[in-house]
Amino acid sequence: MDLNEAPHAIEAILFVSGESVGVPELAQALGLSEMETMHAVEALQKEYESQTRGIALKRYGDHLKLETRVEYAPYVERLLQPVQRQSLSQAAMETLAVIAYHQPTTKGDVEQVRGVKCDYSVQSLLHKGLIQEVGRKEALGRPILYATTDKFLEHFGISDVRELPPLPVLHSAAPDDEPPLTP
After folding, report:
1. CA nearest 90: which of 82, 98, 79, 102?
2. Does the predicted model carry a pTM greater than 0.85?
């Protein structure tokens, strides 16, 4: 494929797919190397950024997706009246947060942090594609290690887990710092 046409071919593929597409899959479809594909992606991103278009090219890990520009989303929503996505339960959100901040991590590690069992939450998050199995821990029983997926990044609108907000620092009062008891 001609490298000058690659950005437009990528745009067409992303438009038709409607879902995020991995860079390796794009490269294979175009018959280009991943490096050439990324150069074409960068050219397409510059084109979108230099013009006020209704869509934007977003990157989630090594996946790309065409999305509505934020400022035009209310108009699209008004037309389509989207059905609300099923939200994650509090337990699933807590489990996902522990995995996101401590990945790769085991179910046992998550349960130790949360103080409760998390079998159902882990299965739900796996089913939704927000986490995945990434190996086994070199420990007794070789428990499964879990990590977040590119779908997790997409769901929360970030391109890398390093964009997660920092965890709050919890200060515990030392016995000497406690105020005296008053009768």
Report:
1. 98
2. no
Q: Can you give the pLDDT at residue 88?
A: 81
pLDDT band at 171; cut points 50, 70, 90: low
Catalogue all structural domains in the chain, each as residue range(s) with its CATH number.
Answer: 6-80 (1.10.10.10), 90-163 (1.10.10.10)
* Helix, coil or strand: residue 117: coil
76 vs 9: which has the higher pLDDT: 9
- In this model, does residue 36 exceed pLDDT 80? yes
Q: What's the rounded Cα separation, in Å, for the pair 34 and 177?
A: 57
Distance, CA of 59 to CA of 74 (rounded, Å):
22
The pLDDT of residue 78 is above 80: no
Q: Tokens at residue 149, please?
A: 């997926």
Long-range contacts of 104-108 (CB under 8 A, 24+ apart): 104/134, 104/135, 104/145, 104/146, 104/147, 105/145, 105/146, 105/147, 106/137, 106/143, 106/144, 106/145, 106/146, 107/143, 107/144, 107/146, 108/143
H/E element, 144: strand 144-148
CA distance 156 to 38: 23
Helices (H) and strands (E) in the chain, counts: 8, 6
Q: pLDDT grade, residue 82 (50/70/90)? A: low
